[in-house]
Write a structure and sequence with these properties.
130 residues, 6 strands, alpha+beta, 2 helices, two-stranded parallel sheet, two-stranded antiparallel sheet
Length: 130
Amino acid sequence: MEGLDPVSLVDGVDAIVLSGGSAFGLDAPSGVQAWLRAQGRGFQIAPGAPRVPIVSGAILFDLANGGNKEWGEMPPYRALGKAAVEHAAEEFALGNAGAGLAPSLASTRAGSAAPHRSATTASRWARWWR
């Protein structure tokens, strides 16, 4: 998110990606970045050099929440990130879906036993993910 800092080298970010998938979900921003580059978006690092889309991401740990995780050799998150940016819109449905379907916050154990609470998502970032 440092691309958002006013003293940063870049003027801003091209996308912010929110994904589930735990460590595997780290591929989602690369799918978004690839699509943005194909559209000619990104930071011009030098004359004649390819543009570099600036994409920040935040990933939820949700690997243990069930669901089919038998992806074979290639986890689906790069393709899911690309599909999400292809379907991005200014208006979207609200609700629990995708990465927001079943995440939870861990208990706080810094001297107190805080109860385990389910987290909910504020928005659904891609209608196709169910």
